[in-house]
Amino acid sequence: MQKTVISLISFPLLLGFLAAGRAARADGTAGVSSGAGGVQGFYFAIGEHFKVPEKEILVIKKKHIPDEEIPIVFYLARRATVAPDAVLKLRLEGKSWMAITAHFRLSAEIFYVPAIHVDGPPYGHAYGHFKKKKREEWRTIELADAEIINLVNLKFISEHHGMPPDEIIKLRQKEESFIKVNAQAKELKAKEKNFKGDEKNAKGEEKNHPIKEKSDPSERKKAPQQDKSGAFPPEKGKGLGKGKK
Description:
This protein is an all-alpha fold. It contains ten helices and no strands. The longest helix has 31 residues, at 178-208. 22% of the residues are buried. Residues 2-33 and 240-245 have low confidence and may be disordered.
């Protein structure tokens, strides 16, 4: 009887865990912490960078917009000078990010992020579009949703943390999601800040307590030695002096 009761209690819990796992996989957040370094940290960075309250981010999230596409909503709204709701409405109608961009009379050139070394996935193909065309032809480029997601998040994270785009590209090549990339960028920036702080403190200590240079023993003034008669020899450059006549 006791085993039956335990089984009845455990079964709903098991179903709950399975449902949570499916939701996390569908949302692309499986294996991602919900703390300051995970999803919540990603939301905080979006809000801080685009100057929007967290509740506005959560409203978009409830509309089933994936986490890594939320920055696109705010980025396009900023570039088109429209409310995020206007962008969200078009996305919920099933339009691609490129179609929404064109709707606001914008083009692929707004997604370009200057980088020095771009080789292989996930950015090689996207940057290939820009390399193959002259600058004045960038307006004709058509980007896929995945390419826009990668470029907008690259721009957002590099600008928000004040890091070169090339460093974010390297992190993206190692990590599965931009939520993890954002957490890594934040951690690296904190370490850099702490290092600079320690270096500054060390210089301050050196300035306040300068290290005295040790004198060369060979340059030290030797004490005069007495001769056999017990007299001290005259100092260099000085005569013995003459008595008065």
